[in-house]
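User: Please fill in residues for this 327-position structure.
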């Protein structure tokens, strides 16, 4: 196995910065966020979780997807602004989240904006060593990872073991003389989860309990604030608005994050709303993650990162909902 000594990490990041926009976890007040790296010494690879996941670097909160000008010659512009980006320090659960995004955005009709950004990205993950009180990745099978990364770092005291996951990762390691050949380093096995769920037959069980009163108990507490879906690394829904000049000669089309727990998400022309009550909206969020998504793609749409539990102002906890429904 190749090894990178921690004292060489900053030199490695500086080398990456010569070719990539580098993004990695940094401290922000008492928490951690993924941010652009100016100074390699700001990077922190031993962290519990970040406030937001890395999805915003592939699927920005807001972006223009079409600009048009219907003047003498019609001009249309629908090309993403893309740069070579290297994301360092993603935990296995957040790499799984990108794989879920790939399923949704690249499987049937690829989203050209997302696709271009994914193609121009390098992922250097790091195995998490300690779950926080909200994580349940151990139950979701996302505490470890076999694909979706170029390099994966395994913390081993004064050094990192380096797993190579792609041709690009191999070329990178071979092109920088900071990596040594050493003995195999074992991946950590995460222990001490506060939250757990049983995923056996979960999609079917959740659907069978579609009319269970437990949904109302939680639905009545939901404020519809949207924090859970915006913070979720696998939530990919968006809305689109048109912004045209008064004569409809030029304008732009913009998309921005949207989410099923928001009141107007399923609103339609004429004042109708397919999910007019809070319970049906909350139910959609949970069932999408644990029933509809696995039915379509074969994987759960939740990585067990615990972020939605941490941020919910009403203490709505998807593991509690699942455990109460399972009885
Ligand atoms: S964060 Fe909590 S209160 Fe806000 S929409 Fe989500 S479940 Fe409802
Ligand atoms: S549903 Fe919650 S726990 Fe699951 S991936 Fe989304 S934010 Fe993380
Ligand atoms: S339907 Fe809801 S839970 Fe599913 S991806 Fe969209 S916002 Fe997230």
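Assistant: Residues filled in for all 327 positions:
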């Amino acid at each position: 196995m190749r090894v990178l000594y921690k004292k060489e990490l900053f030199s490695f990041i500086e080398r990456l910065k010569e070719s990539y926009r580098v993004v990695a976890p940094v401290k922000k007040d008492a928490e951690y966020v993924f941010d652009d790296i100016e100074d390699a010494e700001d990077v922190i690879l031993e962290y519990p979780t970040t406030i937001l996941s890395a999805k915003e670097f592939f699927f920005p909160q807001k972006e223009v997807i079409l600009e048009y000008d219907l003047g003498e010659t019609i001009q249309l512009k629908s090309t993403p602004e893309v740069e070579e980006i290297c994301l360092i320090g993603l935990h296995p659960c957040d790499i799984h989240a990108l794989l879920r995004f790939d399923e949704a955005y690249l499987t049937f009709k690829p989203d050209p904006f997302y696709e271009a950004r994914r193609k121009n990205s390098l992922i250097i993950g790091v195995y998490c060593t300690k779950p926080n009180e909200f994580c349940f990745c151990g139950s979701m099978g996302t505490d470890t990872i076999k694909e979706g990364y170029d390099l994966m770092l395994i913390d081993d005291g004064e050094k990192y073991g380096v797993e190579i996951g792609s041709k690009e990762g191999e070329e990178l390691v071979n092109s920088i003389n900071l990596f040594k050949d050493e003995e195999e380093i074992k991946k950590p096995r995460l222990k001490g989860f506060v939250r757990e769920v049983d995923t056996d037959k979960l999609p079917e069980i959740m659907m069978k309990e579609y009319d269970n009163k437990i949904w109302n108990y939680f639905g009545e507490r939901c404020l519809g604030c949207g924090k859970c879906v915006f913070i979720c690394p696998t939530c990919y829904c968006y809305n689109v608005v048109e912004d045209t000049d008064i004569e409809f000669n030029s304008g732009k089309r913009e998309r921005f994050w949207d989410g099923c727990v928001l009141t107007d998400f399923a609103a339609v022309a004429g004042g109708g709303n397919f999910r007019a009550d809070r319970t049906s909206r909350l139910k959609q969020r949970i069932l999408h993650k644990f029933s509809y998504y696995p039915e379509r793609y074969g994987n759960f749409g939740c990585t067990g990162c615990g972020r939605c539990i941490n941020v919910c102002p009403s203490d709505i906890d998807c593991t509690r909902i699942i455990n109460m429904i399972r009885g």
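For context: The mean pLDDT is 96.
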